[in-house]
Amino acid sequence: MSSEYLGYTEKVLEHFRNPHNMGKLDDADGIGKAGSSMCGDIMWIYIRVENNTIVDCKFETVGCAAAIASSSVLTDFVKGKTIEEAQKISNKDVIAQLGGLPPIKVHCSVLAEDGIKAAIEDYLKKSHKL
Ligand code: FES
User: Fold this and answer.
1) Which among 9, 73, 81, 102 could disulfide-bond with 97, CB atoms 3.0 to 4.6 Å apart, if both were Cys?
2) Ligand 1: centre distance to CA 38 (Å)
3) What residue's CA is closest to ligand 1, atom 4?
């Protein structure tokens, strides 16, 4: 089946087949959970922070191919960013990193935005910065 048929870019398929940074971060400084009421899919984002910079990020996603690819690309994209920079990441950035998503799959990228925002909020709460 070609990616054209599925409406997915090669980049989406690549991240779906070989997801980057999949799994739990045992020493996470922040954990975010996001879910879609549309489909019931769930995503957890784990971050480790040093000197206000995200030095590591992993994910666990129970969801569709687009949700897995969105979480995988997000974990690459967010590493090395400051907390302030990471707070500005939107699902549009995730879609851009994937080279696009079919319109019906745009909500899947929102999970990645919600997940990283929730992880940052958790980190800020735990480190008494909120
Ligand atoms: Fe639910 Fe993709 S269909 S996140």
Assistant:
1) 73
2) 8
3) 108
